[in-house]
């Protein structure tokens, strides 16, 4: 709980982009991990006979459990993996705010997991459930979900796999940790499908995406948005 944050995203054009609430994880000192769709949005503009998609990031305010609040800078966004990396001042981080520890183990079917999020705005809500499938392909999800397919899946890389859990998570929980009882993180919650399951980004995918985003953010003139694997 001490390493989980509440993120509020506001966009310059509030008529086009409504505000968003999601969760974030303290990654390393000064860095936060969350979903790309928590801190960004897209719009389409005509270009000849087609429409071109453009992405924008919002202004993010981060809240720690206990009330500490600060602005968070969006450093890099990987749309295809739905991962975003943010930066906050190290001065606001207390010794009790412990960065996440990624699990070295791949979860098995039936393993108990805990999810921290802010469903419908309720702050720092904890739920628990079990792993249904540690590696569910996106193609499988598309095949068996006929209605209510989340908008956030639309831009994911087609070869993505997800950590499938039986936890019920509502809007406001995206970006929260999926962890063991000891706090080791298996993944980051992506989205839930009503009456089906919830899906998270596995740790292995997050690690690769973050390494690339950290390297890119150190390059002068880099683009915040990274659509690559």
Automatic annotation (TrEMBL):
Gene3D superfamilies reported for this sequence: 2.40.10.120
GO biological process, one term: proteolysis
Any one GO MF annotation of this record: serine-type endopeptidase activity
Family: Belongs to the peptidase S1C family.
Annotated protein name in UniProt: Peptidase S1 domain-containing protein
């Amino acid at each position: 709980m001490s390493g989980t944050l509440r993120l509020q995203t506001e966009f310059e054009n509030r008529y086009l982009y409504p505000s968003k609430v999601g969760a974030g994880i303290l990654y390393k000192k000064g860095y936060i991990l969350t979903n790309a769709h928590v801190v960004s949005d897209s719009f389409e503009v005509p270009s000849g006979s087609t429409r071109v998609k453009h992405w924008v990031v919002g202004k993010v305010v981060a809240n720690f459990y206990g009330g500490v609040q600060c602005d968070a800078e969006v450093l890099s966004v990987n749309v295809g993996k739905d991962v975003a990396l943010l930066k906050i001042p190290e001065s606001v981080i207390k010794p009790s705010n412990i960065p996440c520890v990624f699990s070295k183990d791949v979860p098995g079917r039936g393993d108990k997991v805990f999810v921290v999020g802010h469903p419908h705005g309720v702050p720092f809500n904890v739920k628990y459930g079990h792993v249904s499938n540690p590696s569910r392909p996106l193609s499988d999800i598309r095949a068996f979900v006929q209605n209510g397919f989340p908008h956030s899946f639309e831009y994911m890389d087609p070869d993505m796999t997800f950590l499938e859990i039986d936890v019920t998570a509502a809007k406001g929980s995206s970006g929260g940790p999926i962890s063991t009882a000891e706090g080791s993180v298996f993944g980051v919650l992506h989205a839930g499908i009503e009456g089906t399951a919830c899906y998270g980004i596995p740790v292995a995918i997050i690690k690769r995406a973050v390494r690339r985003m950290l390297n890119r953010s150190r390059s002068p003139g880099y683009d915040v948005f990274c659509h690559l694997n």
